[in-house]
Amino acid sequence: MAKKPVKYSVVDAFTDKAFKGNPAAVCLLEDPREEEWLQAVATEFNLSETCYLTPISDAESLSGTPRFGLRWFTPVAEVELCGHATLAASYFLFSNELVKSDKIEFLTQSGVLTAKKFPENRTSNPVNEPKGNYLIELDFPAVPIAEINSVDVLEISKSLNGAAVVEVQKTAGDDLFVVLPSAKAVAEVAPQFDEIRRCPGRGMVITGPASPESGFDFYSRFFCPKLGINEDPVTGSLHCSLAVYWSKKLGKSDFIAYQASPRGGVINIQMDEKNERVLLRGKAVVVAEGVILVDAFTGEAFKGNPALVCSLEDTKDDQWLQAVASELNIPSTAYVTPVSMSPESTIPRFGIRWFTPVTEVKLCGHATLAASHFLFSYGIVQSDIIEFSSHSGVLTAKKISKTRTSITVNECHDQDEDFLIELDFPLIPIADFNSVDISQISKSLNGASVVEVHKTTNGEDLLVVLPSAKAVVEVQPQFDEIKRCPGRAMIITGAALPESEFDFYSRVFSPKLGIDEDPVTGSVHCALGDYWSKKLGKSDFVAYQASPRGGVINLHLDEKNERVLLRGKAVIVTEGSILV
Question: Which of 32, 36, 100, 129 has the most CB atoms around its CB within 10 Å?
């Protein structure tokens, strides 16, 4: 029997303003789902946390309080405790009136947690609380901290770009707990994420006392690249350790804390030392909601490169466009807008713009493919061809019947749709780049042997050739070092073995754009096609992008017209609405 679509909301926690605080995806499960599916969805969303709610029958809930099973997943692993996603889940249940009580119990790996509606006029710090009808109060276990004598303080300081370290402890949750001289020092830290990965522990908490006039008791930040989250925006669960530490340092039990991430967030805390509990109070706002459409984990979904496609009926300013792309934190968000055409025109045209989590880009292949699939599959266009007006000129997308293509490698995982999409993109020539420091490039690739280095003629990307496809796969990118290299992004590529069915492999690292490694990058193949056509003396290629998700691109180089044709498929994983 087919499983029901899964309802979800994206909720910003510890804030009452959209695009602030910490986003979490909240999924309500009506049917059991296997572990692989749960992790795949969390990876697809790529938010700091995705949580799954499972209703528990009244007969099983002895207290009479509505009870739900609750699990939390980062993009790479399940975790035992998460504050902001619990707040998000509570708000989801309260605001959708899925519970009639003002209290909810959650059955978790960290025991039974409770969430209560908390009227604002009951708080001791109403001036500093966000406005609204109610706060949500979470009852969490205190997480003790202990001294750690074996840590290398110089290594910790290096990972924080030379910050002065006052003391280092460790939480019971296996996080390093690093105290800095002041809140200002916390805010000014420039984390070196590659170095933080080498430090012991799961993640690294940094904290420092705030000045009395700031209105806060302490600042903190949390870095956890090992969990797929370079910097967590607002981390409720860590305040279960921060409260333990600062209650002893400051001799008090009530705190107003500020997490000084770029998004920022305020947490009101009460330490119940006697019962070893911590009460966390905050608000939340729903930003988007929808349904997950895939019925089960399959070879098609959760592969390739995810893109968000937004069909705009009203004009939105650039700040909103960037805020949505940052909120949903996937490699590219595409905005499509219908363009009025003359009656003689038979080809539908749309404006298209692409945003990464940190900036707008001039060309994006996978998000154009996704936008085309969206328009074709929902019957929004009746034609087999679409034109897009973009910063890179007019781009076209065509439906290509399976029977018309001789290339079948990328159809080894058959999908429900019966067509490929062919994109007509501009060729991006490459040029020699003699001024580059080869040793710096090699260092950024963890010592990989570099054969040659080029740059794209738009001056934006480095194209680094390695000895083989195997060398491309084995590279361990050092993202902090890549940020120091010239160019917008770094493409690495190498020739594939003849028996592999591919012509070349590639990977793309673009931490400056907010994407450490892009899963499958259509647009860079407009430059790779130029390079490999000269090397291999051919114009048709089957290319493999060797990211963890992986993806196959079929491309044809039209050298005469300076165009590249990219062919691929897409599958819709979720659909919904942005509510703000």
Answer: 129
Q: How many CB atoms lie within 10 A of CB 514?
A: 16
Q: Does domain 430-567 have CATH number 3.10.310.10?
A: yes
Q: Which string of b and e fits 154-175 if b means at least 16 CB within 10 Å?
A: eebbbbbeebebeebbbbebeb
Residues assigned a catalytic role: 49
Architecture, CATH, for domain 6-139+285-289: Roll (3.10)
For residue 448, which of 470, 469, 475, 468 has the smallest C-alpha distance? 475
Non-local (6+) Cβ contacts of 264 within 8 A are 20, 21, 233, 234, 258
- Of residues 571, 562, 569, 536, the one with CA closest to residue 405: 569
Q: Which two tokens stand for residue 224?
A: 């956890």
Distance CA 330, CA 364 (A): 13
Q: What is the pLDDT of residue 173?
A: 81
Which residue intervals of the chain bear CATH 3.10.310.10?
6-139+285-289, 145-270, 300-427+573-578, 430-567
Query: Which residues in the chain come in under a pLDDT of 70?
Result: 1-3, 58-63, 121-132, 292-300, 342, 402-418, 459
Q: Give the separation between CA 380 and CA 63, rounded to whole angstroms.
A: 51
What secondary structure does DSSP assign to 232-275, as a single string? ES--TTTHHHHHHHHHHHHS-SEEEEEE-SSS-EEEEEEEETTT
* 3-state DSSP assignment of residue 353: strand
